[in-house]
Amino acid sequence: MMSSADSSHPFIKLLGSSPTSPTYINHIATYHPKTLDKPESFKSFCEVVFYNYPSLGISYSFDITPTIQRLAAIHIYNAKISGYEKYNLDLSLPFGLDINMTGKEVVETLGEPSVKSKYPKCCIVYPDKGVQVDLAAKDWEEPNCSIECLTFYQEFA
Questions:
Q1: Count of the separate structural domains present in the chain
Q2: Domain of life, per the record (predicted)?
Q3: Which residues form the domain of 118?
């Protein structure tokens, strides 16, 4: 289960907010450089829009419904993954995670994951925490592989 310290983390509190909400606007103003108060790019699909900040190593994924956009996921990238620089906001990550960890260190920190997948690369998921970890490994014999992307998410009904 998520501890109260983790539930009060700025990223976790941000989930569910709209891009026009005071919560989201204040987050951007507090943690992003003033020159990057607007996304560097957008990517839209029928039910989701991404607010991308490749130079900061972060992307915000908003679910789109007929009545609202709400933040469903925050993607934190390692260097040179999908055109992103390494995550570099002055904000630590929830749950004691760090983008520099190995897959083994993630499991030592969070415990055994509830979900593991291996296509096309290894991925571990902690649904009770809303954390997905994409690893730079094609099989489980690479425990010291690096993290490619950390995703903090909230599922909506």
A1: 1
A2: Eukaryota
A3: 4-153
